[in-house]
From TrEMBL:
Domain of life from the UniProt record: Eukaryota
NCBIfam families in alphabetical order: small_GTP
Recorded name of the encoding gene: Arl3_0
Name of protein: ADP-ribosylation factor-like protein 3
Pfam families, alphabetized: Arf
MF GO annotations: GTP binding; GTPase activity; metal ion binding
Organism (species): Geococcyx californianus (Greater roadrunner)
UniProt-listed GO biological process terms: protein transport
Length: 166
C-alpha cells in the first residue's frame, strides 16, 4: 500500500512527503488519517475545511492534507494540488450508488495538470461492511486499468479497524 509507493518515490527516508487525501464526503478520509496517526477515532465529524497532520512512518515524515469531500467544498480541492507527492483517494466501498460520482471525481483529478504523474493510492474503504464491493470490482468499475501516466494502486481497507491502512 502506502509504504510500497513511498519506497518507490523516495529512495532515502527522512524525507518529507506531501500527501493529499481526497474522496467524497463520508468515504472515511479523516478516520483513515487518524488511524495512520494512531489517534482516537471514536468522535469524528464531517470535515468542513481541512485537517493537516504530520505522521512519522517507517522513517518518512508524511504531511497529510485531509480535505473535506462535500460537494460544496470540492471546487476548492485544486487549491491544494501544488507540490503533492502522493494522492490518496478514499472510496466508500459499500456506497454503490455513489460509485459513478466518485469515479467522475477521480477521473477529473487524474486530468488535473498540477497532479500530472503524481502516484495515486486508492483506498477501497469500509471493507468491514458486508455490503462492501471488493477492490477488484471497484477497480474495474472505475476503469483503473486505463491509467497509464502514473503509478497507481488500489488497496482494500477498513479505516475503522485499521486493517489494510499501513
Amino acid at each position: 500500500g502506502l509504504l510500497s509507493i513511498l519506497r518507490k518515490l523516495k529512495s532515502t527516508p527522512d524525507q518529507e512527503v506531501r500527501i493529499l487525501l481526497l474522496g467524497l464526503d463520508n468515504a472515511g478520509k479523516t478516520t483513515l488519517l487518524k488511524q495512520l496517526a494512531s489517534e482516537d477515532i471514536s468522535h469524528i465529524t464531517p470535515t468542513q475545511g481541512f485537517n493537516i497532520k504530520s505522521v512519522q512512518s517507517q522513517g518518512f515524515k508524511l504531511n497529510v492534507w485531509d480535505i473535506g469531500g462535500q460537494r460544496k467544498i470540492r471546487p476548492y480541492w485544486r487549491n491544494y494540488f501544488e507540490n503533492t507527492d502522493i494522492l490518496i483517494y478514499v472510496i466508500d466501498s459499500a456506497d454503490r450508488k455513489r460509485f459513478e460520482e466518485t469515479g467522475q471525481e477521480l477521473a477529473e483529478l487524474l486530468d488535473e495538470e498540477k497532479l500530472s504523474g503524481v502516484p495515486v493510492l486508492i483506498f477501497a474503504n469500509k471493507q468491514d461492511l458486508l455490503t462492501a464491493a471488493p477492490a477488484s470490482e471497484i477497480a474495474e468499475g472505475l476503469n483503473l486499468h486505463t491509467i497509464r501516466d502514473r503509478v497507481w494502486q488500489i488497496q482494500s481497507c477498513s479505516a475503522l479497524s485499521g486493517e489494510g491502512v499501513q
